[in-house]
Design a protein that fits this description.
100 residues; mainly alpha; 0% strand
Length: 100
Amino acid sequence: GRARRSSVPGMSPCQASGRTSLASRSRLSLDVPEAAARSRLERACGVARECLAATSRRARRDVEDCKLRASVARLEREHVQAELAAKERDKAALTARAAS
């Protein structure tokens, strides 16, 4: 048969395959930390998105609460002003009756 030629000059095919598997292993060993780092980064991004969504929900709820409080305050002010106007009319009527 034909003799196998090594793709790496000066090395037998066995040595070259050992070197290739070593290169594959070192490439894999570089991929594993990269995958772990990518996984941690994706998890951190997910946590950040959740935090942002929660903060946005809280901000929307706070805005709605503020609008509600402002509306209640406006209605209360109108009610107090109407009561004050009624009391002033009553006072004027009583003052007019006392004067006559």
